[in-house]
Amino acid sequence: MVNTMTKTGYTRPSVDEENPTVNAWDEKALDEVRIITQMMREHQRQIADLSKKRRTKVLKLREHKVTYREIAEAMDTTEQSVYNIIRGDSK
User: Fold this and answer.
1) Total number of domains in the chain
2) Disulfide: which of 45, 54, 79, 85 matches 68 by Cβ 3.0-4.6 Å?
3) Looking at the domain assignment, is residue 78 inside a domain?
4) Is residue 17 one of the residues assigned to a domain?
5) What is the full DSSP assignment across 30-88?
6) Mean pLDDT, consecutive 10-residue segments, the chain of 91 residues?
7) Residues pairing with 11 in the sheet
8) What residues contact 24, with CB distance under 8 A and at least 6 apart?
9) Residues 71, 73, 78, 79: is their CA dihedral positive or negative?
C-alpha cells in the first residue's frame, strides 16, 4: 500500500487492490464529505446575505417609527434581539 499526500498535508493510503471495497467506500465517503462541506459553505454565505437584508429592513422599519416591540413580534423574537440586529451583533 502506498500513501498519497492530500491538499491539507495529511497522508492517506492509496487504493489497495487487495481490498478495493474499503477504499472505494472511503473515496465515496470523502466525496460526500467534500460535497456536504461545499453545501454548508454556500448556506453560510446565504445566511450572511439574508442577515444583511434583514438588518436593512429593520433599520428601514425603525426610520418609519415602527417600534422595537412591533418588529420583535413580527419576527417572533425579543426586543433585545432586534436591538442586536440593528447594532450588527446578530447574524
Assistant:
1) 1
2) 79
3) yes
4) no
5) HHHHHHHHHHHHHHHHHHHHHHHHHHHHHHHHHHTT--HHHHHHHHTS-HHHHHHHHHT
6) 57 59 82 96 97 97 98 98 91 53
7) 5
8) 15
9) positive
